[in-house]
Amino acid sequence: MFRFLKDVNREMRKVTWPKSNELTRYTIIVIFTVIFVTVFFTIVDLGITQVLDLL
Hints:
It is a single chain. By secondary structure, this protein is an all-alpha fold. It has one domain. Helices cover 87% and strands 0% of the residues. The chain has 2 helices and no strands. The protein has helices spanning 2-14, 20-54. The protein is elongated and about 65 Å long. The chain starts with a helix and ends with a helix.
């Protein structure tokens, strides 16, 4: 267990964390992607509902 935690600590020191501006940019990209996917599937769902209501 202790060896595992020691290895984790060693590997975490090798990680390069994103800078503030990169983090902001990535966060905005993720938020817009989630919004786009939500709107897309809402439109698809409404379309399928309309087609099934016609049947």
